[in-house]
Amino acid sequence: MKRHYAVVIGLLLSLMSVYGGGVSLAGESLSGEEIVRRYHGAFFYAGKDLKANVTMRLVDKAGKERTRSLTMLRINAKEGPGQKYYMYFHSPADVRGTAFLVWKHPEKDDDRWLFIPAIKLSTRIAAKDNQSSFVGSDFSYEDISGRDLTADKYKPLKEDALDGRNCYVVESIPKEPSAFSRKVSWIEKSSYLPLKEEYYDVQGDLFKVFTADETKKVGNHLTITRRTMRNVKTGHYTEVVFEAVEYDVGLEDGLFAERTLQRPPQKWIK
Q1: By C-alpha distance, which of 212, 206, 213 is closest to 232?
Q2: Residue of 98, 102, 38, 96 whose CA lies nearest to 74
Q3: Distant-in-sequence, close-in-space partners of 215: CB < 8 Å, separation ≥ 6
Q4: Most buried pick, 7, 36, 43, 153, via CB within 10 A?
Q5: 116 touches 123 (CB < 8 A)
């Protein structure tokens, strides 16, 4: 009987050691891709739509701060994983009126535009720039609206506790050349929210760390209301705080059009 159990345990461990392997949850075997799919659903797709006031605090190694405030709007496609995002910057004065628009497409490059009021110009952000800094922060454009699920392959590494919260630990490896060579995510088992993520550069060195610093229940959705992205090489970090978060407010698809970059929807950004 002992030998039988040893064989079964050895088989389970070998299955979990390969890409596409899974971990067990109450009899349910979850692959790395399925865990990350649920994470995307909880983190990026909660509700049919979302409105939030957002404060970004950019802090350099010496402790010097810059603060930016904006309104974020997001709507999910009625069918499929498509989404649209709209962000309008209120302050400081040098960025007031800057607007960012994303049309998120499944399994193909997203469309992204940035309106710069100082030169009254809307510019399209090329797909190759998706991992560039989002308006000078430590978050990339891709971090804001999410990375295509099919862009990486996934490996469940282990189960771990982070600040007393049980997590799946999953490694993501880009299928094509990327700004990072791999990412390790601590995904809470109960909520599927990412509590921590480590990004490694092409040399294999840790260069960026994401942390979920505060979570709150908003309606039926557990929401990360304070999050930080820290560049461990430069010492610079960006803290983002979400306030007045509302889900299912009745946003319409027409709000997320190129024309709103220069003519913002006043009803929704006040």
Answers
A1: 206
A2: 102
A3: 191, 193, 222, 223, 224, 225
A4: 36
A5: yes
Integer CA distances (angstroms), 87 to 12, 74, 159, 163, 218, in order: 46, 9, 36, 32, 20
pLDDT tens track for 138-170: 999 999 888 999 999 999 999 999 999 999 999
Sole residue written with tokens 């407010």: 249
Give the end-to-end CA distance of the chain in Å, rounded to a whole number. Answer: 68
Structure tokens at 53: 């006031």
Q: Can you name the CATH fold of 35-269?
A: outer membrane lipoprotein receptor (LolB), chain A (2.50.20)
Regarding pTM above 0.85, the answer is yes
Contacts of 84 (CB under 8 A, 6+ apart): 74, 75, 77, 101, 102, 103, 104, 253, 256
Whether 72 contacts 114, CB under 8 Å: no
Residue 203 has, within 13 A of its CA and on its CB side, a CA count of 3
Q: For tokens 């982070």, what's the residue?
A: 162
For residue 212 the two structure tokens come to: 């979920």
**Domains of the chain, residue spans:** 35-269
Q: H-type helices in the chain, by residue range?
A: 2-16, 32-44, 141-145, 259-262, 266-269
Distances (CA, A) of 159 to 14, 109, 194: 15, 32, 13
pLDDT digits (tens, 9 = 90+) for 10-40: 433 333 333 334 554 444 679 999 999 999 9
Here the tokens at position 234 are: 């430069």
Residue 94, classed as helix, strand or coil, is coil
